[in-house]
Design a protein that fits this description.
Distance between the termini: 22 Å
Radius of gyration: 16 Å
Shape: globular
Helix content: under 10%
Mean pLDDT: 89
Number of strands: 14
Oligomer: single chain
Number of helices: 2
Number of domains: 1
Order of helices and strands: EEEEEHEEEEHEEEEE
Length: 214
Amino acid sequence: MSLAASCPRCAAPVSGTDDTFACRDHGPTEPLWRPEAVDYDAFAEVVARVDDLPLYLPWPMSPGWSICDVGCVGRDRVRATTTTVVGTSDLDGEVEVTVVSEEPGVGLGARCAAAAYDDPGPQISNGPPSVHVRAGSRTVPLWLVEPDGPVQGPDEGPLVRAVFAGEADGRWLWLVTRPASAALLLHDDWLLADVTGFGPEALAMPFGGRRPSW
């Protein structure tokens, strides 16, 4: 199997079997399945695990952009999915965008966002949304999620990433851009497509780039 199991809340591997997984820091958990390096076969393996959860990808992708990471959380049933794409912009140089769709309490979005809590905080629905994106057939409002925990390392800080979150079909939708200024790429006609419904266009998906460090 090309997918490795780890904790959805931290970078630690998990121990156990198909019936029981545990993280040394977070205890019993449902595993995050993620390849060391993503290619078409690894992507297809993740898609085969996903049932009724969307696996969102910015689509169509701009020239020069590629998929560098994909994963899903769950044992008998998938509870979260994630993709990361990398590319360049004239303003920011190298840019990384991570999309997470998850049920409440999973904690994968918070890990990608370096947030202190598993689910978005009181920013959600507090005031007008920061941006709207298209997720499948619907428009989803997203709010800026301010950091609510301590700075986590020398490469962290308010300019490192921007985090947006909202609700789509009863699940949390997270968007994390690195650097923070890359959030300017998001606009109200920005489209997230569910790749589980792709047909021949799946063969056009480009892969490559460094896997995100979260």
